[in-house]
TrEMBL record:
Residues 171-195 have a biased composition (Basic and acidic residues). Residues 127-139 have a biased composition (Low complexity). It comes from the Archaea. The lineage of its organism: Archaea, Methanobacteriati, Methanobacteriota, Stenosarchaea group, Halobacteria. This is Putative Zn-finger containing protein. It comes from Natranaeroarchaeum sulfidigenes. Residues 80-101 have a biased composition (Polar residues). Residues 1-35, 56-195 are annotated as: Disordered.
Length: 195
């Protein structure tokens, strides 16, 4: 009987270890996602009040393009490469007369302009952002960092407030701790922006 008790305690220890491994693995993934979002904010992206339909993470706006940094979907639910390829095909088939009638004029002209100036290459989203910045007039380039910085600070402040409220209302202590940790990371990013 004593042996059975020892086996049960060993089983419980192993089950507990597995739970802890899963928990820390999830927390590490959350930290990496938060770190990636902080990097985007530091690069001038703005966190919108919208959330991704696919994964639930916040939607970011950078250079007129809205996207989910976690799963890569755009605000319309398209994956960026698929959207760029569809736009390229539409531009080649129909010409440039249909550009003003596109449903998202702020997001679609930029990739088309890059393709017109650089040939038929299919740039990745970070490359597109760099090329768009280089092709914009200098007056817009000067205004964007100031506006982007203020927007990033406002978005971080809103996020911190929202996470703190959610943590206060959370009944599960682990969830509350995770929300507070995310709020702390957002506060650190906000502090870095203000320096």
């Amino acid at each position: 009987m004593h042996v059975l008790h020892t086996d049960m305690s060993e089983f419980d220890k192993e089950a507990e270890r597995e739970k802890l491994r899963e928990k820390y693995g999830e927390e590490q993934a959350d930290r990496e996602a938060t770190e990636h979002m902080s990097e985007l904010l530091l690069q001038g992206a703005t966190m919108t009040n919208k959330h991704c339909d696919a994964c639930g993470d916040p939607i970011f706006r950078q250079n007129g393009r809205e996207f989910c940094p976690s799963c890569g979907q755009t605000a319309d639910g398209d994956v960026p490469q698929q959207t760029a390829q569809a736009e390229s095909a539409a531009t080649n088939d129909e010409g440039t007369n249909d550009q003003p009638t596109t449903p998202r004029p702020g997001a679609t002209p930029q990739p088309e302009q890059v393709q017109d100036h650089q040939g038929t290459t299919d740039p990745s989203p970070p490359g597109t952002d760099t090329a768009d910045t280089a092709s914009t007039p200098t007056a817009q380039h000067v205004e964007t960092p100031t506006t982007g910085l203020a927007d990033a600070q406002a978005a971080l402040t809103d996020t911190i407030t929202q996470l703190a409220r959610q943590a206060a209302q959370e009944s599960d202590p682990r969830q509350a701790t995770e929300r507070l940790a995310a709020a702390r990371e957002a506060a650190e990013a906000l502090d870095a922006l203000r320096r």
